[in-house]
């Protein structure tokens, strides 16, 4: 047989190649009519999660906060046991009259110092303030920690009370209460404060605000009382910043000397 007789003529070869190409490119289910269709297995549909209510969200947030705080305290307390040298945290707040102060209002200034023996331990503070009207001896002025630390437009810029756990007033960590004014001054040491200089709810970078009025401590009977205690105008404020131990040591020495002088004068008067 001649080669020409074994090979199909070129006119028949082209349609045959085209048919073979189409058969190879077609999906199996279509290439073979009558074969079972290649349908995907039915998948279980995910059920929508029920929407958590506001109480559940608050509980989750509170639980998350407690876990973060516990981890943070474990990490820091290994190097900062209470009483160990250098373990205490210190901060200072240089109080200045509000930039937006009405000229008729007293210009209060001074220094608030904080000391915390270790992260998680109760905070103590010295409040040294001057500039109150001397004629109102016995008046009481509220002092709180407020949320923001940018005070350039005035103490109003400090925003509301610092309230990381959505608690009512006076249960915010920086609700320091009322301070008696004597001879135009406040000289007070307070311990057992709930605020902290460390951890997720540190007050460092936030504002201390001195008010013109007295804090009603949530007993005012109106919604504002549970928000800010109706403490009145913001006379002075400052931003809490980390510092070394020396300012606290100086204030503690002066405080001890003042108490000794007072005791001595009481003894002479008796
Ligand atoms: Cu306040
Ligand atoms: Zn408050």
TrEMBL record:
Region (Disordered) spans which residues?
Answer: 31-58
| EC numbers on record | 1.15.1.1
Q: What does this protein do?
A: Protect the extracellular space from toxic effect of reactive oxygen intermediates by converting superoxide radicals into hydrogen peroxide and oxygen. Destroys radicals which are normally produced within the cells and which are toxic to biological systems.
| Single GO term (MF) | superoxide dismutase activity
> Which terms does the UniProt entry file under GO BP?
removal of superoxide radicals; response to hypoxia
Of which family is this protein a member? Belongs to the Cu-Zn superoxide dismutase family.
Required co-factors: Cu cation; Zn(2+)
Gene that codes for this?
SOD3
| Broad class of the protein's primary localization | Golgi
- Which parts form a coiled-coil structure per UniProt? none
- Give the matching Gene3D superfamilies: Superoxide dismutase, copper/zinc binding domain
UniProt-recorded name of the protein: Superoxide dismutase [Cu-Zn]
What catalytic reaction does the record list?
2 superoxide + 2 H(+) = H2O2 + O2
In terms of PANTHER family, this protein maps to:
SUPEROXIDE DISMUTASE CU-ZN -RELATED
User: Which range is the signal sequence, renumbered to this chain?
Assistant: 1-31
Its top-level enzyme class, in one word, is oxidoreductase
Cofactor: how bound: Binds 1 copper ion per subunit. Binds 1 zinc ion per subunit.
Checking PROSITE patterns in the record gives: SOD_CU_ZN_1, SOD_CU_ZN_2
Ranges of Pro residues composition bias in the record:
42-53
One Gene Ontology cellular component annotation held by this UniProt entry: Golgi apparatus
- Subcellular localization(s) per the UniProt record: Golgi apparatus, trans-Golgi network; Secreted, Extracellular space
Keywords linked to the UniProt accession: Antioxidant, Copper, Disulfide bond, Glycoprotein, Golgi apparatus, Metal-binding, Oxidoreductase, Secreted, Signal, Zinc
């Amino acid at each position: 047989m001649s080669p020409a007789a074994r090979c199909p003529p070129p006119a028949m070869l082209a349609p045959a190649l085209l048919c073979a190409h189409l058969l190879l490119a077609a999906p199996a289910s279509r290439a073979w009519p009558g074969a079972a269709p290649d349908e995907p297995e039915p998948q279980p549909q995910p059920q929508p999660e029920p929407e958590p209510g506001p109480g559940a969200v608050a509980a989750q947030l509170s639980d998350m906060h407690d876990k973060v705080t516990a981890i943070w305290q474990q990490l820091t307390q290994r190097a900062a046991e209470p009483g160990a040298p250098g373990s205490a945290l210190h901060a200072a707040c240089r109080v200045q009259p509000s930039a937006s102060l009405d000229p008729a209002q007293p210009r209060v200034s001074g220094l608030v110092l904080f000391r915390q023996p270790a992260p998680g331990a109760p905070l103590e503070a010295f409040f040294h303030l001057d500039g109150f009207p001397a004629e109102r001896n016995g008046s009481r002025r509220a002092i709180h920690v407020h949320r923001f630390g940018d005070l350039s437009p005035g103490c109003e810029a400090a925003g509301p009370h610092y309230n990381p756990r959505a608690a009512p007033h006076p249960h915010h960590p920086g609700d320091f209460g009322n301070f008696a004014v004597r001879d135009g001054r406040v000289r007070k040491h307070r311990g057992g404060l709930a605020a902290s200089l460390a951890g997720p709810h540190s007050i460092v970078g936030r504002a201390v605000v001195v008010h013109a009025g007295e804090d009603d401590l949530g007993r005012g009977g109106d919604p504002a009382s549970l928000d800010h205690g109706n403490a009145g105008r913001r006379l002075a404020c400052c931003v809490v910043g980390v510092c070394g131990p020396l300012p606290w040591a100086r204030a503690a020495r002066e405080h001890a000397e003042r108490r000794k002088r007072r005791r001595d004068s009481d003894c002479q008067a008796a």
